[in-house]
Predict the structure of Molecular chaperone.
Amino acid sequence: MKHILPAISAFLLCLGSFSALAQVSLAPTTVFIDQNGIGTLFVTNPGDTPQEINVSFLFGYPGNDELGNLTMVYGDSLMEKQFGMGDRLRAFPRTFILAPQQQQTVRLQVRPDRSLAEGTYFTRVKITSNAQTADVEQTTTEGVSTQVNFKFDQVIAAFQKVGTATTGLEFGQVTTEIKDGMVRVIPEYKVSGNSPYLGSVTATLKNAQSETLAEQQQTVALYFSGKRAVELKLPENLPAGTYEITLTYETKRSDIPSSDLVQAPAVTQKVTLNIQ
């Protein structure tokens, strides 16, 4: 008699960047709901196997630990009540089969609510995909077969601007640490206004003669307050001395149109770096 072992599911959680192992691709990687309450997401199956797709929502946002490392925050009921979209957000279709080499348009629709305060509301869209047929099947000489079915979760952000949306950054203490040829600048920050701060930060290292020795840019998504480290690779054989690092925050990103971002004036933060 042939015995089938239970299927084994593996989950992959992605934050805006998707591995080559992912079974479907998504575009865009951040969804902005327009003034009519509609957002559009394209799900593409580049493979040769039909995929079962499920679209769901969960409230979450990027946070950080005490060392300034990026973490994801889920289950924050207080912030969800204030900034979440809740059951106002729906997906059409929510479940479907996506044939090989095909694309499906998913409409995200937000039910209007005139009682909402001005600001930006947000949530996470989770797209779960798994092959319609078994990925791996192996039969042993004893007649026992094993089946492995990989299930992938890709999670992206969705935003809705209501009325006048504003944002900005205020800074507190800034610390630095050097390890393995990298300097980590860790500023305390607080987001002002009624919207998350989405943009980029450029770290610039200069010497006493104001010459630029190193520069590096990274995207940022800051929601409330905390610490968020910015890393910069130091030049090799950097001599001992006193240097200055400038962090320049701007509400612009290469992966998001400026019209979708809540704009704010650029803000800079400087810190002295002593190399022994």
Remarks:
- The chain has two domains: 3-162, 167-275.
- The helical segments are 77-83.
